[in-house]
Amino acid sequence: MKYADDSFMLHTDLYQINMVQTYWKDAVHQRKAVFELYFRKLPFGNGYAIFAGLKKVMEFINNFGFSQSDIEYLREEGNYPEEFLHYLQNLKFTGTIRGMREGELVFANEPILRIEAPLAEAQLIETPLLNIVNFQTLIATKASRIKEVTGEDVVMEFGTRRAHEFDAAIWGTRAAYIGGFSATSNVRAGKLFGIPVSGTHAHAMIQTYRDEYTAFKKYAAAHKDCVFLVDTYDTLRSGVPNAIKVAKELGDQINFIGIRLDSGDLAYFSKVARKMLDDAGFKETKIMASNDLDEYTIMHLKSQGAKIDAWGIGTKLITAYDQAALGGVYKLVSIENENGEMVDTIKISANPEKVTTPGRKRVYRIVNNENGHAEGDYIALDEENIQQTERLKMFHPVHTYITKFVTNFTAIELHESIVENGKVVFEEPTIQETQAYAKKNLKLLWCEYKRTMNPEEYPVDLSQACWDHKRAIIHDIKEKISKKMDTR
Ligand SMILES: Nc1ncnc2c1ncn2[C@@H]1O[C@H](COP(=O)(O)OP(=O)(O)OP(=O)(O)O)[C@@H](O)[C@H]1O
Ligand SMILES: O=P(O)(O)OC[C@H]1O[C@H](OP(=O)(O)OP(=O)(O)O)[C@H](O)[C@@H]1O
Ligand SMILES: O=C(O)c1cccnc1
C-alpha cells in the first residue's frame, strides 16, 4: 500500500466529505444536529429483528479521527482547500449517542440509534454506522429465525468459507451468536469475542486415509471427543457402520459424541442412522446435519420426523441468502438554526412509510403487567413523560383508526447512553449476556409475532404529541409550497 496506515475515517461515501466541506465553507458545520438510524421494513418477512453492531460502532467512535495518510490521500486526490484539510485533521467526535443495546428486539421505523453531534461529525459517521448495523442486524435476525425452528437444538455457525470475506465472517458469526447460535467454527471469532468454538472434520480426512475406518481411528487417536462425518462413500452402508465399529472398539477411550450427515436425504438417513446407533447401544450419540440448511429446510426436515439433534449452518445464514441487505437509513430529524434554536426537520414522500418523523425521540416498549407480554412499542418526543401516564392510547401511525388503550403497563425505555460528549460510556456486556438478553426479550413477544411465515404486525406507534408534531410540520411545508406556487 502506498500509505502508511489505514484508518476507518475514509470508510465512508465521498458525498459525506463533500457535504462536510459545504457545511464548513458555509460555517454551519458546528450546528447541532440530531440524526436517527432505523430501518423501514423488517428483513426476511420476519416479525421482529435483533439489533447487533453496537460493539463495532463503539470501536469506530473510539477510533474516530483522520490519520496523517488519510489527509495526504485527500490532499492528493480530492482537490480540497488546505484549511479544510487542516480542519479535518483536527476533528474529534464530540457528540452524544443514545441507542439500543445489542440483542434488543427492534422493529421498523423506530430509532435504533440517536446521534446528536455537530453537523459535520454526525454526517461523517452515517455510512460506517449503516454499514455496521445493517449487516450485523440482518445476520442476527436470520440466526434468530433459524433458532425459532430449531428450538433447543444445538446450532453451529459454519459459514466462514462462504461469507463475503473476512469481516463478514467474523462479525457475522458474532451476530449469529447474539441471535441464539450455540457456537462457531471460526476460531478467530472465538478468540476475539469469547464465542464457543467447535467443529467436526471434513471429507478430506477420509480421502487422505482412503477408508473411513482408518480415518475415524486416526481422528480418535488424537481427539477424545469425536463426531464422525459419515457420508463420504455411502452413509448407511459404510459411514455409520464404520463409526459404530470404531466407537465399539475404542469404548471409553473416546466420547462418541455424534455423527454428521452432509448429503443425501437427511430425514431418511437420520432416522435409519438413529436406529443403527440405538441398536448398537449408542443412544446418547447425537446426529448432526449440514448441507445448505436454513429455517425452511429445517422446518421440512422436522415435519418429516428427522432424528437430527444438532445443525451446522453456513452459506444461507452468513450471506443472508434470501435477503441481501437490510435497508437501514440515517435521517436528520432536528437541526440548529442561525438563532441557535433547534428546528425539527422532515423528509416528505408520497409513500407514507417513507415520511420521516421529526424531532428528538425516545422509544418505549409497553409491557402488559398482567401477562408479561409486549403490547407494542411507543415512540414519544424526548420531553414527554410517559411514565406518569396511567391510560396510554396507542394507535397505528398510518391507519390511525386502529387504536387501543393500555392501562396496567410498564414502559421500558429502550435507549441507553452509549456515547456522551465524544466518550464511549456504555459498559459492554459479555457476548453470553448479550445472547441471554436477546433470548429474554423474545419471551416478551406473543408467538404470533415470532412465527417465521406471515407473522402478525407488531405495533410501533407514535405518541399523540409526536404524531401531531409531524402533521403540523407537514402542514407548514405544504402551506409554504402552495404560497410559493401562488405567487409565481
Ligand atoms: N428430507 C429432506 N427434505 C427436504 N430437503 C432435504 C432433505 N434432505 C436434504 N435436503 C436438502 O436438500 C438439498 C439437497 O441438495 P443437494 O442436491 O446439493 O445435496 P446432495 O446431492 O445430497 O449433496 P451434495 O451435492 O452436497 O453432495 C440440501 O439443501 C439439503 O439440506
Ligand atoms: O452447507 P453450508 O450451510 O454452507 O455449511 C457449510 C458446508 O461447508 C462444508 O462443505 P464443503 O465446503 O466441504 O462443501 P460441500 O458444499 O461440497 O459440502 C460442510 O460440509 C457444509 O456442507
Ligand atoms: O466443523 C465442521 O464440521 C465444519 C466447519 C465448517 C464448515 N463445515 C463443517
TrEMBL record:
Pathway: Cofactor biosynthesis; NAD(+) biosynthesis; nicotinate D-ribonucleotide from nicotinate: step 1/1. Residues 360-469 form the Nicotinate phosphoribosyltransferase C-terminal domain. Coiled coil: none annotated. Keywords: Glycosyltransferase, Ligase, Phosphoprotein, Pyridine nucleotide biosynthesis, Transferase. One of its GO terms (cellular component) is cytosol. It comes from the Bacteria. Transmembrane segments: none annotated. One of its GO terms (biological process) is NAD+ biosynthetic process via the salvage pathway. Pfam families: NAPRTase (PF04095), NAPRTase_C (PF17956), NAPRTase_N (PF17767). Its EC number is 6.3.4.21. PANTHER family: NICOTINATE PHOSPHORIBOSYLTRANSFERASE (PTHR11098:SF1). Belongs to the NAPRTase family. This is Nicotinate phosphoribosyltransferase. It comes from Lysinibacillus fusiformis. The lineage of its organism: Bacteria, Bacillati, Bacillota, Bacilli, Bacillales.
